[in-house]
Every structure is written in structure tokens, then in C-alpha cells.
Amino acid sequence: MDADDARALAGAYRYLRTVEHRLQLVDEAQVHSVPAEPSARVQLARVLGHRDDASATALARFERELSEHQAVARSIHERLFFRPLLEAFSAVADPSLASGDAVRTRLAAFGFTDAERTRAALAELTRGLTRSSRLMQQTLPLLLTWLSESPDPDLGLLGLRTLVSGAHRRDRLVATFRDSPESARRLCLLIGTSRLLLEPVRRNPELAAVLGDDAALARRGRAQLAELAGAVLGWRHDPERWRAGLLRLKDTETARIAARDVLGIDDHETTAAAMSDLAEVTLDEALASLDPPVPMAIVAMGRFGGAELSYASDLDVLIVFGGHTNADVTAAEETAEALVRTVKGTTPAGRLYTLDTDLRPEGRDGPLARSIDGYRTYYARWARTWERQSLIRARPVAGDADVARRFMAVVDDFVWQHPLDDEGQREIRRMKARVERERLPAGEDPQFHLKLGKGSLSDIEWTAQLLQLRHQIASPGTTSALGALEEAGVLDRADAEVLRVAYRFCERTRNRLYLVRGAPGDALPTQADQLSRLARSLGTSAVALREEYRRVTRRARLVVERVFYGIDQQRR
Q1: How many CB atoms lie within 10 A of CB 2?
Q2: N or C: which end of the chain has fewer CB within 10 A?
Q3: For residue range 233-262, what is the model confidence (pLDDT) as tens digits?
């Protein structure tokens, strides 16, 4: 090792160890990450000897010093690890390096666990004597560094290999890397986070080119999405081509939303709102394509109604129409059935969304579509408390505006005309207790369940809804409801903040778990490797993630027991 490199690495090592030791002196915890909270970072800076003056704050000095040591260590590490690897794999250096434990050791240090698969991927990426191949050879050390910073470097490398399959695709991707290193860095992070983000980029290479530009990647609101849908679908008159265009639009926009989420551009609430806007436009286009013979509207329920969709969410909906005759009923039911088929598709790969219509009157035994008068009669005579609770989240999202307005008048009359009485409150508490006992899926860890665990999403949603019905405060979203309850003086500010923090943590973690696993999941993984990948994706460690879950849900559960169940904790 060069003497200057040795001195620089030694200095970085001593500095980083010192920072780690100062962190671990607090509560004697096994902490390895610099805290995210500004106040904690300022305290750390001061413990390390930095002070404010006219030229800079203590925090600014610490962060500059930290970044300098990290940059020096990373650059030397890259030069000493990745260049020899590439030379070894291309057989231009000592062959013993490529066949021995040295390669596996070097790869493992960067998170690559399969040396042979990595060798094959690197060989394919650098194959050939074209200008693109030479550029890829020059870029690979940097790409490997960026992949190593992702939650799953092996997955990212395989994804990169897939993206450059085919000369035309390789040329376009290498040109993107040459013109925008930030796009390359972000792409490595995305494909090393989730296999679900690879296919949209493969089908739409332009997406990779805009990753480095926050403005080009900016969220599209509902009006912009509707305009884009009109441009994409307006010229497609064949039903199959029209549906394929809508599916591609939906998948591409979902990938853009997920990219902003993973890159830290959007918070979880913005992500949920963007997912909800996309679902609304998709349903509006699907219903309009059927040209309903009677005026119809789609009313969102559940998380969709609260504009709080996650990546794995089904769309809970009610379908309402504005007719009276038998012919109207028949036409509306046929249109509703066609809508479900259009949205569901014939195969999982062709599915836009899963429409869940089970919250309609009479559930699966009732008609898919019901008239406004039919809903009014049902709610007045037969509706139960749980149906009143579910309608808190009712929100029109597609179809005829007048039908939607008239239906919401029926909902307002049923849900908000009088406060929830004592018997209604007891019934909601009994339902919630039954959910806690019966609905936790087998095999999922109840201690770390993000949806049904104590102090997690379900606890917070039910608490907000009980208070809303008791005090007649309308707001379809959970976080917006907590704000409205706080503003009305119904919920203490500290309690509202505890519930908000837990809700945001559980929702963000659950969303990211879906991306990392490539499939829905509601509990922190029990397998160490899966939990580690999830934690890395969230910028923390497995131990810290579980501790954060315990901390925020424990505090939230205390509020839920006091506010929702009415438990006197001093007597407890």
C-alpha cells in the first residue's frame, strides 16, 4: 500500500472509531449510525469538540469533517478493491487473484455474495471492443461502488446485466451514464433495492435518463396525469392496444413514484397521495372507456378513500348510479362487471389493480352497482355500525360528478347526522378486540407486525375513526384526521404527535418492505438477511429498525389504550 494511502486510511479509521465511541457512550447502546435528528447531531458535534463561531456552526464543521474522511476512505477502497477485481476477471493481472479467496473476500466486503455470478456479470458487461464496451469498463468501478451502497448489491448487478443485454440497449444506457453520473448512481440504488423497479426501466429506457434530474422526475398531479393519459390513449382505438397503453402508463408512473420514494425526494404521505392520484385517473379512464349508458360514479373507500394507498393496496370501492328503472339497474350492473374485468385483466401480469367491492351493502351477495335511492334505503334501515365507520373514508374519485355529489349527501346524512352513542362505541371496541385476536396471519411475528401489532397502523386508524364519529369530525385520511382532531381540541397535541410518528414509521416501513421483498408483507422479516436489506434501504441497521419499531409502537399503544379503550393507566 502506498504510504500516503496508508496514512489517509489510518486517519479516517481513527476518526470514525472516535465518532462511533462517542455515540456509544450515550446509553451504552451498540449504535453505528450518526443520528438523523438535528439536535442529536449538534450534541455529537459538541461532544467531539466543535463549537459555533462567526464562520461556521459546530454541526457544519462536524459534517464537513465526517464527509471528508468518508470520501477519502471510499476512494482509496475503490481503487484498492475494484480495479484489481476487474483486472482479475479480465485475466490481465495475476490469475491467482481471480481463483482464490482474495476475490471472495473483496466482493463480500462490498456486499456481493456470489463470486462466480459476479464474475459472469462483469465479463458480460465489459465484453467487446466497441466504444460502449470501453466506456463501460472505465465506469464499472464507480458503478460497483454505487451498487455496493444499495441494500442488495447482487440483485443490482444482475439488474444492470439485464439492462445492457442487446447492443442498442447497452449503447443507450452507457450514453446515459456518460452524460449523467447522477442518473447512473440513482439507477444503481434503485435496481439494488427492488426487482420491481427493473422491468419498468428495461421497457422504458427514457426513465433511466431522467433519474438524475429532480425536475424531470417531479411528481405529476391528477390534472397532469389525466392530460398524459389523454395523450397516450386518445389515438388507441383498438381495445387491447388501449388497455396495454393504460397498463404501461400505470406501471411507468408507479416506478417514478417509487423512485422518488427510495431516493428520498418524497415522504411517505406524498408517495401515498401520488399513488392515489394515479389510481383515480386509471379508474376514471377505465370507466369512461365503457361509455356507461346510465350516469355512474366510483367512490373510494378504505385507504384509497383516505388517499393513503400503499404499493400493495387493493382499491376498495363502491359503485353508484343515478337511475331508477329496471333497464337502468341492468345496464349499471353490466357496466360494473365490465369495469371489474377491465381493471382486473385476464392475467396477473395484465392487472391494473384489484378492485375490492366487498364494502358494498350485502357484501358479496349484493349487486356490484346500486342506485342512490338504493343506498339511501339500505343505510336508513339495515346498515350496521361497522358500515357507518367504513363510510368515514368515502370519497368520490371517478365518474359522474352529480351522481357523486348526491351520493355523498346520503353518506353525510347517515354518518354525521348524530354523534356515536355509548353502545356504538362499545361495539367498535368489541370489533377491534376481535380483530386483534383473530386476524393476525399465521407465521407472522405479532411483536413486529406493522399493520395489526399493538400500537401500529390498525390501532391508530381505529382510534382516529372512533373519535371522529364521537365528535362528528369528517376527514377521510388517518393523518389528516389526527390533525383535525387535534385542531378541534379532541385529541391532545402530544398524543396526536405520538400517533402520527408511529403511523408514518409503520407505513413507510411497510411500503419499503414491499419494494425490497418484491411482494406484500405486513411484519418485519424474521430472516436476518431480509431484515438487513430492509434496514439498509431505510438507512439504518436491523437492530436499530427493530428498536425503533418497539419505541414508537409502545408509545402509540399507551395512547390507544387510554383514548380508544378508556383504560386508566394509573390504576393499571
Answers
A1: 10
A2: C
A3: 888 878 888 988 999 999 999 999 999 999
